[in-house]
Amino acid sequence: MPHCGDVGDSPECHSANKDHMALTTRSLILFVATAVFITGPVGAQTTKKPAGGRAADQSPVISPIPAPRVFSHPGELFTEYDRFTDTTEISTSRREEDIIGKLVLRTGAVSEITFSARLSFKGPQPTTPPETVSLVLTTGGADPWGTGPTPLALLADGASIAVDEIPQAPIQTPGLGVVFQSTVARVPVADFLRFVNASKGEGRCWGHEFVLTDAQMEVLRDLASRMRPVPK
Asked: Is residue 232, in this structure, part of any structural domain at all?
């Protein structure tokens, strides 16, 4: 068994150190994403503007809520009811292996941005659709990934989607040389339903354009189907 840490470490030591760093980085990215989910605001009343600058659509929901069915994705959704606040939250999995997944850039390359979503409503079952759905995008690396404070933007079949973005302060990890970035976006439910019912969902985050895969769109449709009001 080689002793690692000495001058002239063996290739086995370098490989072990690299694997340990990768595992630690993945764990920290998951921790950051979970922390943003827990602390990120949900449903607050703020001015909502889309990337294109038009006024947010305040009209009633006109895009249909997807009907319950078997959705074609490998992910998992979680439902949590808090009896103390009488609030239910439904979210895509926060576990790395089940998270919606890394976004694919327009170039076809897989990015280092992970993407997850949640919604909440009063009571154990929805009686009306929520006002907003929250999206969380997270990334991490040796340097801040991306270019400048570029606003998050979403397109549904080429049309702008209203986004109320709340960028989070970068988190640096002493000793690891890793910087984590995350941003939270609240999307009005009418726009979110337009997005999930689109045949193509696109976006731009930290200067990188991406296109959601079929499975990622299916995860969001699955989430949207859980907001369907239960008949009284």
From this structure: no
- The answer as to whether 5 is a domain residue is no
111-157 tens-digit pLDDT: 878 888 999 999 999 999 999 999 998 887 655 555 555 789 999 99
Range of the domain at 136: 11-225
Euclidean distance between CA atoms 95 and 75, whole angstroms? 10
CA distance 176 to 3: 21
Number of structural domains the chain divides into: 1
**Is residue 188 classed exposed, middle or buried when 0-12, 13-18 and 19+ CB atoms within 10 A define those classes?**
buried
Q: What H or E segment, with its residue span, contains residue 27? A: helix 11-39
How far does the chain reach from its first CA to its final CA, in angstroms?
A: 66
Helices marked H in 51-92 — which ranges?
none
Report whether 224 contacts 218 (CB < 8 A): no
Residue length of the chain: 232
Residue 2: inside a domain: no
Look at residue 66 and tell me if it is in a domain.
Answer: yes
